[in-house]
Amino acid sequence: MYGRVKRTFQTYKELLLLGLLGIPIGLVVGGIDAVFGRVLLAITDFRNGHPMQLIPFLALAGALIAFCYLKFGGKSSKGMNLIFEAGHGEEEVIPLKLIPFIITGTWITHLFGGSAGREGVAVQIGATFSHWVGRKIPLKNSSHIFLVTGMAAGFAGLFETPIAAVFFAMEVLVAGALEYQALLPAITAAFTASATSQFLGLEKFSFALTGKIDMNFPNMGKMILLGILFGVVGGAFAWTLKYMKKKFAQTWKQPVIRIFIIGLILSVLLLLLYRGRYAGLGTNLIHASFYGEDILSYDWILKFLLTIVTLAAGFQGGEVTPLFSIGASLGAVIAPVLGVPVEIAAALGYAGVFGSATNTFLAPVLIGTEVFGFSYLPHFFVVCAFAYLFNLNKSIYSLQKIMDGHNGYQKP
User: Percent of the chain at pLDDT above 70?
Assistant: First the structure.
């Protein structure tokens, strides 16, 4: 009896410690996210004002990034793959220099017009710092727990959607499984990081939906169709990104030459296609989708292709914000065909394509509700469920594992 009480007390003590440690991790990661995010937004505004002066130098900027990673990056050059290797226990150390490398590389990519995102950067920042802390904590499995904790903090600090961030971090390493052992520190770290970045002035995107669409039988059919469409598009994005990375690497084995040649092609395309409309994060397309501005029927396709080419070439940045823009602009285009309010279809695409491409289910449902309103939870649930089912287990994270109920983990 005494032994059982002692073990229970010890368990609660460890839980309390984990929860408390999540707070300083959230403070640090939220602070770094705020600096990274605010500078990135300033860079975006500057590039949008001077596209003809900056985009032509994208190839040179890419060559500089590739050279620095090749010469000084070491393990850091693996980027998100290194985070997944550590999460699967295949790598013990994530070097802290990954943080300045990924931040600087992403800033340079965006300054000169590369079509890339920012989420992968934030997740790597959080995971790297928190994993470093976890390796110093004398608790069982602490490095893995704090890796997940840091991923949640990084996502929450950048997007200020802490609930979605917690579930994204817990479900992204292994599709179909949740890392509940990291739940408490992930919660405290995510909410702290979100509050910290908000306090430091980082903007959060949110849009209050006002359209109405009852979940009756015909509308349920429309939600299912949207979910299937977004699932196919997200899965196609993940598959194509993986294929193009492999193809480019086979064609140009030297990374500096590869990124320079593809950078030249990208510069020409980005300038010819409406002078940088598809450069950077894609927040312009997101804004247009929700505020009644012109969305071209092929906006989502061009953003899809240019983002894949940018990232496959070796430019730095994430995929998620471009996925948001692809989904939102696709939703805006398809809405009149299905007779769905444009803002609702855009919001569902925003979440659905993201969930499909990352092979996650709960995170996109929750990011949809945190950004657009919890009253639309049933809509996001249905769409994201079918997007998840119809992406064929494809993921932008090549080292994500799949939970197989019969054979354990499998690679996608």
Answer: 97
